[in-house]
Amino acid sequence: RKEVEQDPGPFNVPEGAxxxxxxxxxxxxxxxxxxxxxxxxxxxxxxxxxxxxxNEDGRFTAQLNRASQYISLLIRxxxxxxxxxxxxxxxxxxxxxxYFGSGTKLNVKP
Amino acid sequence: SQTIHQWPATLVQPxxxxxxxxxxxxxxxxxxxxxxxxxxxxxxxxxxxxVGIGQISSEVPQNLSASRxxxxxxxxxxxxxxxxxxxxxxxxxxDVRGLNEQFFGPGTRLTVL
Lengths: 110, 113
Known about the structure:
The complex is a heterodimer. Chain A is mostly beta strands.
């Protein structure tokens, strides 16, 4: 079983739509959780950390559900510029390694 | 502020040739350093990580090696490249003293012909 699993998509949504991605992780002792954004042929960039209490940054909201072992990312009022691949990242029982999901591709259409 | 540099940005090498990719971090001390590879259309594969000078952990047995000769320098090498070594190589750093997010360099796109 993979450490981190994501739906690869693509999610094709119109501008202004609300879209949500989920990501499941296998290690219940995982400590830290993140969402990254990766544009085509570019490096991943940190979008937001996911805290136990959830985290909101403008149009983006991240939630953690430890009981069901998943994290989610909600994007409201989608913009064309939100089109990218969103990577879920989990830092498990030690702080030296990170496990990346394979990413969920989002296409926002005009 | 911290910055991370990688070079070269792109590289085309023949099969069997050697490889040396360099990564340096500025603005922090004693970072954890990482090498990842991303094949076209695929996820990130952790190759090596280092928690200090001379300390290298290998995640995937292959014809690649890594070294950390200085605190903020991480080098990825190969003596003989294979076709399957083609990909996007990303260096990253993290600070276990903070929130421990990872930050990536701009990457090196390697094509082995």
